[in-house]
Amino acid sequence: MTRKKQKYYVVWRGVKTGVFTSWEDCKKQIENFKGAQYKSFNTKDEALVAYSKNYADYRKSASKLLSLAAKEKYGKPILKSLSVDAACSGNPGLLEYRGVLTDTKKQIFIEGPFKKGTNNIGEFLALVHGIALLKRKNLPDFPIYSDSKTAISWVKKRHCKTTLKFDAENSELLAIIKRAEKWLQENTFKNPILKWETKAWGEIPADFGRK
To answer: Which among 107, 105, 113, 110 has a CA at the least distance from the CA of 126?
Structure first.
């Protein structure tokens, strides 16, 4: 069995700041903390150096790749919306997904971890979870953002087109996928499903920050 590589997590802004040696310890400091600043590193030395500097020096923002004129064609995101994202440690690996309010980054839901999942599955489930939640709250016009074209297309087709192999270890995940597909087939919704333009706007607010 391949041993999982140790990572180190720097928290610049959170309940407590510093260098943490597990994602669980890091998450305790940043979950539901408005404006949390954090990032993972491969070595302790890198993490210690990063902690002595500013978060802005380390946050990788794809928005820097576009000129101002290029960004303008994307406009600005709708802040009164829901943003969803997934994180997967490995492919397949432990999978989580969540949804946050785009303007405040307040976490609305989080699910997982699930064994032997993929990022695309997580993005799909996050979208369905978000849409179902908005329907229950009677918010039919509230937009929902995802940075995954694949997940958006799967939701529109009402089918999770994964090629992942399922067995006893990830049977729970398969059951959740089937339930999500069933919900899509039995329900209608009007919520705009929008693509989050990472190159223009930076990471989606629901990003787990583990890059």
So the answer is: 110
